Automatic annotation (TrEMBL):
Keyword set includes Flavoprotein: yes
GO BP terms in the entry: glycerol metabolic process; glycerol-3-phosphate catabolic process
Keywords: FAD, Flavoprotein, Glycerol metabolism, Oxidoreductase
Gene3D superfamilies given in the database record: Alpha-glycerophosphate oxidase, cap domain (1.10.8.870), D-Amino Acid Oxidase, subunit A, domain 2 (3.30.9.10), FAD/NAD(P)-binding domain (3.50.50.60)
GO MF term list: glycerol-3-phosphate dehydrogenase (quinone) activity
Cofactor(s) this protein cannot do without: FAD
Domain spans labelled FAD dependent oxidoreductase: 24-352
Keyword flag Oxidoreductase: yes
Organism of provenance: Rhodanobacter thiooxydans
UniProt similarity note: Belongs to the FAD-dependent glycerol-3-phosphate dehydrogenase family.
The name this protein goes by in its record: FAD-dependent oxidoreductase
One family name in Pfam for this protein: DAO_C
């Protein structure tokens, strides 16, 4: 990785040279799995480059349920290996990336006649805790549970069980992993759509990719190609492998914390279909999710919540928090992600009955990762690299090593310990550069969020922002956390970031128009129930 800024100007200058190199490994897909593959390859000295068709974390990896969990539901399905790997990786991430991956307390209320009851659920948690090497669950009868989780429906309440998993900012996790990969010599480009796989002598020998920004096409040559394209996994692979990707959509609501305050994640089964639903605190707001249904829209269109999903999630809130009386007009933003679930093709199988196991589809010179989970991106990356090692001609060892390098021990006297922890977690090795901006930009927060104006400036300078939605929906989450997609803050965001991005007035106005249209279409309420957004410059 060079010492120059990682931005659009660097990208334009570097792209022809990167295309002219011979690579050991090309990674296609810039979500968490692709970032993990790049990180592990770079650590081992492989010449490796990642190409992402839209933006890093653009797909599922910025629109997940934000949970780093061990997969408690997989124990009930007998998938102990998946649970064991997930629990191990959850503990690793909690240890390595505090401030980015943090513990989250869950409470499952038990109601008369519901399954699982306290004893059965306690048994599952005993196994779950044993896999993590600790015992952290506890049952609470109704009186203390009212203090732990006020506002719960009281009728038929037997008590509640508390256990622990973890929560993250999924898009920042991807950026942090990419940063580690680049620090070890890997490279990554967004806005590069892979058009086809290049084949020679009966094997994959690279890719033909189009620069979405300029329309120019480049041939990238490599000894191996690893595809980690999520729901797009079927698009480029060689036909003939068993199984296919079944795109399943999961949608979420985000509410102001004051509208539905929770100190813990509340987990329960939806009365309509007995699927698990969560209400949990995230980034100073409250998230409600998720749905699980077949996604039939074209994958190149951003997923969005449907009216039926909105009603389903509002009904879930009313089921457990009837006194809150949450309505559609209370919703601050929404998001919908598409899960790349590997299916054997049983047409009658319900979405929630599909297993969440991944698969590798291998042809000479190319390995395609199908499926996978946010939590287990590291072991998935190692599995892909083992399959690629023969093509590259390198042995793959797995020495004990951390995903994340140590953060420099810099003093941050102007910031609270909690804010210091947050910045260290989200920015890692880049922290010295971010702190240098505090002297000129200051340590003020954007609105009521925890995001600093200096973080916006840093992203515009150094995090390969190509479009305004990259900045507001993934490098930061201001488009989700502030009313109207951060509409009231856009003039100040423009004053800070437009010069850093090198955009003309015309370019900024076009980007802002496109971003607000995208936000209304895919991150607000469905159109039939859309709440009028405040006019530009008006109070939200």
């Amino acid at each position: 990785m060079s010492n120059t800024a990682w931005n659009a100007a660097w990208r334009e200058h570097a792209l022809p040279g990167l295309a002219a190199q011979e690579w050991d490994l090309l990674v296609v897909g810039g979500g968490i799995c692709g970032a993990g593959i790049l990180r592990e390859a770079a650590r081992r000295g492989w010449r490796c480059l990642l190409l992402e068709q839209r933006d890093f974390a653009w797909g599922t990896s910025s629109r997940s349920s934000k949970m780093v969990h061990g997969g408690l539901r997989y124990i009930a399905k007998g998938q102990f290996g998946l649970t064991r790997a997930s629990v191990h990786e959850r503990q690793r991430l909690l240890h390595e990336a505090p401030g980015l991956v943090d513990p989250l307390s869950f409470v499952l209320p038990h109601y008369r006649g519901d399954f699982p009851g306290p004893k059965v659920f306690g048994g599952l948690l005993t196994v779950y805790d044993a896999l993590a090497g600790q015992r952290r669950h506890r049952y609470y009868p109704p009186p203390p549970l009212r203090y732990l989780a006020p506002g719960l429906k009281q009728q038929g309440l037997l008590g509640g069980t508390r256990f622990f998993d973890a929560v993250t900012d999924d898009a920042r996790l991807v950026l942090r992993v990419l940063g580690e990969a680049r620090a070890d010599g890997g490279e990554a480009l967004n806005g590069m759509r892979v058009v086809e796989l290049l084949r020679a002598d009966g094997r994959v020998a690279g890719v033909l990719a189009e620069d979405v920004e300029s329309g120019r096409r480049y041939r990238f040559h490599s000894l191996a190609v690893a595809q980690a394209t999520g729901a797009w996994a079927d698009r480029l692979r060689h036909p003939g492998h068993p199984g296919h990707i079944r795109p399943l959509r999961g949608s979420h609501l985000l509410l102001p914390a004051w509208r539905l305050p929770v100190a813990h994640a509340i987990s329960f089964m939806h009365a309509a279909d007995r699927r698990p639903v969560f209400v949990f605190p995230w980034e100073g707001a409250t998230v409600v999710g998720t749905t699980d249904l077949d996604h039939h829209d074209p994958l190149d269109m951003e997923a969005r919540i449907s009216t039926e999903e909105l009603d389903y999630l509002l009904a879930a809130i009313a089921q457990v928090f009837p006194g809150a009386r949450v309505r559609a007009g209370d919703v601050l933003s929404t998001w919908a992600g598409v899960r790349p679930v590997v299916s054997a093709g049983a047409p009658a199988r319900k979405p929630s009955d599909e297993n969440r196991e991944h698969a590798l589809w291998i042809e000479p010179g190319c390995v395609t990762l199908a499926g996978g989970k946010l939590t287990t991106f590291r072991p998935l990356a190692l599995e892909v690299l083992r399959a690629c090692a023969g093509f590259v001609g390198r042995a793959l060892d797995d020495p004990p090593a951390t995903v994340f390098g140590p953060c420099p021990p810099l003093p941050l006297p102007t910031l609270s310990p909690a804010r210091q922890r947050r910045l260290r977690g989200r920015h890692g090795r880049a922290l010295p550069g971010l702190l240098a901006l505090l002297a000129s930009v200051g340590s003020e927060r954007v609105g009521a969020t925890e995001t600093l104006w200096a973080e916006l400036a840093w992203a515009a300078d150094n995090e390969l922002v190509l479009h305004l939605d990259d900045l507001l929906l993934r490098r930061t989450r201001l488009g989700l956390l502030l009313a109207g997609g951060a509409l009231a803050e856009l003039p100040r965001i423009r004053a800070l970031c437009q010069p850093r991005l090198g955009w003309s007035d015309q370019r900024w106005e076009r980007e802002q128009q496109d971003y607000l249209a995208l936000w209304r279409r895919c991150y607000s309420l469905p159109e039939p129930v859309a709440v009028r957004q405040p006019a530009e410059g008006a109070e939200p």
